[in-house]
Structure prediction request, 226 residues.
Amino acid sequence: MTNQAPVEWRHNRGLVPYDDAVEFMDRRVQEIREGRAPATVWLLEHPALYTAGTSADAQELLDPGRFPVHRSGRGGRYTYHGPGQRVAYVMLDLKERGADVRAFVGDLEEWLIRTLARFGVRGGRRAGRVGIWVERRGAGGVREDKIAAIGVRIRHWVTLHGVSLNVDPDLEHFQGIVPCGIEGHGVTSLAELGVKAAMADVDAALEAEFGAVFGALPGVQNELVE
Prediction:
């Protein structure tokens, strides 16, 4: 699907407080709706924290005092954000893309799958399990671990929130929750899979594959946010 509107890419070097990110997204979504700002993709890292989506079950917060817990308007349950994880917040006007929420989520999944493929990692969808998964083969057989999460919200047909990809976070931090309410599976990262990728490498792959999945994006604006 081709989107001829320009997209602004925002990058952060430091850790962005979660509440600050939500405040920016709320403001930017309104600006996009009013035609005062372009579609935006924001690549960042958060300090260690848990977020609770609209379907979060309190019993799935296993260690409430471990990190700050933020209520989130996105769909889904509990998830973890922290250093070493690339978060990509995607703010697009879906009215320009057929007003199809299911197709948008499918595009986010494809975006992550194609990004992982650039690093030789085969990620995939799994029926009944949100996110992107990889197979792990070991002495105990084959297991499936989650490497990327998806959680979105739609407001007046403009998207906010987005995806997170585990580059090299502290995977032990996921032990304080049942990630996305899915038990019986693990969590992994590019680093744990043996992929030595700098965050800048991941960002370059995300930008390239975003264009491939969401369409040609002329007039891309790059802004480095300190």
Q: What stands out?
A: The chain has a mean pLDDT of 90. Residues 101-117 form the longest helix (17 residues). The chain has one domain: 7-225.
